[in-house]
């Protein structure tokens, strides 16, 4: 859960990165991809617990807008299929492809997840937006049988106060060839727009994905997590 949850948080943060003169500072109105020529640097520090084991994790991401509709990053690429006119109210859609997770096991070997997804955002007004995604993930196992997974996510972004925005996200994981048949993830985050270049935030999350039951170590997983993040763009 560690990789997917922190990546979700950084996605929400890094999608707030674009040219200051062309896009609003309000995170709710911001698009899913970076603008042409924009660079975004994001980092999240998380502390969590899986069963009785506690550990910390650092996740970094770097994104670059090749065009207004195409963004590349450390975790993959994202292409916007449908844009909102002038980034106002309406529907926006993007597709993504890239790294979706990583698991370790001394006995069973490592596992790397690659996937693709359709991401969407519907902006009702400057104070409220709905976000959603549908995704397929392929787990490439070193020793075990390869596994498949389907992910369905839905969330809400809402304005709290000047420069403050909250988001809540739920993900259902339909697990194929795992010991578990399904898993659930929930995250809650608060974003502070410190300046036009910088966002700061905090988040908490929960997942019932059991790493040990599915043949992995606890090192790359949290069932409960809390953390902070920062995003800088130029």
Please tell me the CATH architecture by its name: Beta Barrel
For CATH, the homologous superfamily is named as: monomeric porin ompg
Provide the CATH topology. Answer: Porin
> Oligomerization state of this entry?
single chain
What does the average pLDDT come to? Answer: 87
Topology:
Layout (H helix, E strand, L loop, with lengths): L1 H13 L24 E12 L2 E13 L4 E4 L2 E7 L7 E14 L7 E15 L2 E14 L5 E15 L2 E13 L5 E11 L5 E10 L16 E10 L1
Antiparallel strand pairs: 1-2, 1-12, 2-3, 3-4, 4-5, 5-6, 6-7, 7-8, 8-9, 9-10, 10-11, 11-12
Write a brief caption for the model.
With 234 residues, this protein is mainly beta. It has one helix and twelve strands, in the order H-E-E-E-E-E-E-E-E-E-E-E-E. It has one helix at residues 2-14; strands at residues 39-50, 53-65, 70-73, 76-82, 90-103, 111-125, 128-141, 147-161, 164-176, 182-192, 198-207, 224-233.
